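Worked example

This section walks through a single chain of length 236. The input is the sequence exactly as stored; nothing has been trimmed or padded.
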Amino acid sequence: MATDHPAAGLGATTVEEVIRHRLSVALGGWRGSLEAALPMLAFVLVWTVRHEARTALLTAAAVTIVLALVRLVQRQSLQFVISAALATALAAFFVLRSGRAEDAFLPSLLKSAGFGVGTLVSVLVRWPVVGFMVSAGDPRMAEDPFGWHRDRGLVRVCSRLTMVLVALYAVRLAVMLPLYLAGQVAWLGVATVVLGWPLWLGAVAVMGAMLLRGRTPLDVPAPVPAVDHSAARGTR
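Given that input, the structure is written out below as C-alpha cells.
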C-alpha cells in the first residue's frame, strides 16, 4: 500500500509550498500574542507606579480574567488566554517566593532558554521542530504524525527554518538576561512586548523569504507494487 505524502490533497509540487500552507494553519495571530503580553504589561505598569508586587500580580490576574471572559462571550478558543494564565501563575510563584519584581520575568527567560536548547537539539538529531509544526497543520496528523520525516527534502528545509527559531530564542535571552540581572523591571516589560509578536513576525518573515526562494522537490515515496497471490498460486 502506498504511503501518503504530507502534500497529498494540496496540489503542491515543492517542499516550500507544503510548509507555507502548514505554517499558515499552525501559527497563531497577533491577538494571541497580545493576550500573552497584556497581563505582564499590566504587572509592569502597576509595579512602576506603586512598587507593590502583590498588587501588580492581582492586576495581571484581573486582566487575564477579562481576556478569558471576552473569549467566552465571543465563543472562541481560550488557548492563548490559558497560556497567559499559566505564565501569570508562574510569575506570581517566583515573585511571592523571592519578593523581587524582576522574578516575574524569570519563567519567560527559562522558557526561552529551554526552547532554544530544544530547537537546536531537534536540528542536530534531524527531527526539526518546524517539521512537527508542519505536521500539526495536517488534518491526518493522528493517522501518521511522523510521515513528514520520510521526505529528506522536507527535513532539510525544516532544519533551516528551525534555526531561525533558535536565533529568535537567542536574541530574547541576549536582551532580557542582562536586564533581569540588573533588576530593570520596566525595561523587561518593554522587552517582553517588543520581543514577543514583533520579533516572532520578523522570524516568520525570514522563514517566508527562505520559502519563497526555495524550490526543493518533494520526495514522494514510490508505491509498493502489489503481489498477485492468485497468479503465484497458479504457477505452483
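What to look for: The chain is about 70% helix and 0% strand.
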